[in-house]
Amino acid sequence: MKRLNLTALIAVVLAAALLGWYLLAPNRPGRSTAGVDVPDLRLSSLGGREVQLRQFVGRPLVLNLWATWCPPCRREMPLLARTAAERSDVTFVFASQDQGRSAPRVRSFLDDSGLVMEWVLLDPQNVLQRELATTGLPTTYFFDAGGRLVAKHVGEISPRILEASLAQIAR
Length: 171
What we know:
With 171 residues, the chain is an alpha/beta fold.
């Protein structure tokens, strides 16, 4: 009898956890992204120039939070860099979340990987993660030209998800 009660308790706890995860999941179909805008923050470029994120409002924006130490980030980066080079109608910003690592280290990673990207910014204090309530890396945010969040993808992005999300913001 005790074993049956313990099994039932575990099943109820797991069901509650799954229901909570589903209801709170940011990518759940139908979940509203209303009220989320491009953050009003300043970050540094690899060259040390200060960049205001809101300067990108007016065009569709893909904001990718990544880190050099993150294997899924490293795997998705060539797809994102290639797509950024092909899509002149969308701005791609890559915000490094490398917790205090220097610009030379990020630049070295990009050079060693053969990646060329126009907007690579440094966020050594991980301000964007806190501002956007990011739950893991990589996370890619898709903002429309008005600066409103339309879609968010947590984890390594696939070509299919990337294209579908771009279609939502580049209308």
